Amino acid sequence: MCGRYTLRSVDRIRIALANRPHLDALVPRYNIAPTQPVIALTTPEHAEELVWGLIPSWSKERKPIINARAETLESRASFSESFQRRRCLILADGFYEWRRAGKAKQPFFFQLKDGRAFAFAGIWDRWRNGETSIKSCAIITTDANELLTPVHDRMPVILREESYELWLNEQVSTSELKKLLEPFPSEDMKSHPVSSQVNYSDIDNEDLVKRVDAEVGTTPSLF
Fold first, then answer.
1. With 70 as the cut, is the pLDDT of residue 128 above it?
2. Of 7, 140, 192, 220, which has the fewest CB atoms closer than 10 Å, so is most exposed?
């Protein structure tokens, strides 16, 4: 799964998503957590805030889903219509994952080798209940690459820049889109252990991404 990520460098995001307006709301984030607002592109020209945690439009209950498995995008009712009609690019430049050792978990920070910004493949939907309207999203996950495998068996789908337009193109077939949902090459990524302070969503500062010695006996409460 992907349960935390970062959006640290506004300049890097703007470079990675050149010629796309409406990015003025970007601010550095070091610990983006489920249920929080996130910045996403829902069309090639439009970036907006969505709530992280997909609530399908037909759902009677407000139960957000933070991740959507690539393998079940077409078969699971919560995802299928959004996969066909409502895809998005969720802006990021790193993410956290936890390695379990008995009852303990050690957080690691993952990013691209050159530290540049990127976009997760995402889907979105709008849920309404009376006067309440929530536009929400989920991050698509796939099998872990070689770098992630010692830590976790899943990873978020990181799209290459040349695939952004294709992912947002409403005319593209789902069979073509599924080809994009592959693990990002491990040789283009790097990682290091970080402090267990990232387990607490109310902590959001640059110290969270700094390398630390692997901690022993860390038992986090993620949410």
1. yes
2. 192
